[in-house]
Design goal:
Elements (H helix, E strand, L loop, with lengths): L11 E7 L2 E6 L4 E5 L5 E6 L6 E5 L5 E5 L4 E5 L5 E6 L8 E6 L5 E5 L12 E7 L5 E9 L2 E5 L6 E4 L13
Antiparallel strand pairs: 1-2, 2-3, 3-4, 5-6, 6-7, 7-8, 9-10, 10-11, 11-12, 13-14
């Protein structure tokens, strides 16, 4: 049986289970929302970026958000404000999307290096890591549309979802 917990979303993205509720980004409203099993929802943060943003939590509990258009990682402070946690620009100025944080505090962010809103054909992207000491580097290359990342519970493996056509040449009709 399917239960509808919430309607009226603009673009729901980046679902995360946290503190007994489902959290997600509502891209069209620039909000991070949490909803419980009874359908009670609350806006947990207003994100100072436009499409796209995804989020996770640092080991100390602070919310961290990918500000895709600006190429930044933003960290929410105790007063609710957002500050720059890291500038992703040295690796790529745009295309930043999904995020996952492991138990050691490594922040993994994927980059999709084409603009589908402009009709550009897909091109291989990459995954970067920001370590707790501030080192930013690429850790996965040549990934077609990397997205949907997770880290195994023991922290030993990063999982990245890749569309099935990754293995085949992709042709876009004119």
């Amino acid at each position: 049986m399917t239960d509808i917990l919430l309607t009226g979303l603009a673009i729901g993205e980046s679902p995360r289970w946290h503190d007994g509720r489902l959290w997600f980004g509502n891209w069209g409203t620039q909000e991070i929302v949490a909803v419980d099993a009874e359908g009670k929802s609350a806006v947990m943060a207003h994100v100072p970026t436009a499409f796209a943003f995804c989020f996770d939590w640092l080991p100390d509990g602070r919310l961290i958000v990918v500000s895709g258009p600006e190429g930044l990682l933003l960290r929410q402070e105790p007063d609710g404000s957002f500050v720059t946690h890291a500038d992703l620009g040295p690796l790529a100025s745009t295309g930043w999307n999904d995020i996952v944080v492991d138990g050691r505090g490594n922040v993994y962010v994927n980059n999709i290096v084409f603009d589908f809103t402009k009709g550009e054909p897909p091109a291989p992207g990459f995954v970067a890591v920001l370590t707790p000491d501030g080192e930013l580097r690429r850790v996965g290359e040549g990934l077609m549309l990397p997205n949907g990342m997770a880290v195994t519970p023991d922290g030993s493996t990063l999982i990245v979802s890749i569309p099935r056509y990754q293995r085949f040449p992709l042709r876009i009709a004119p």
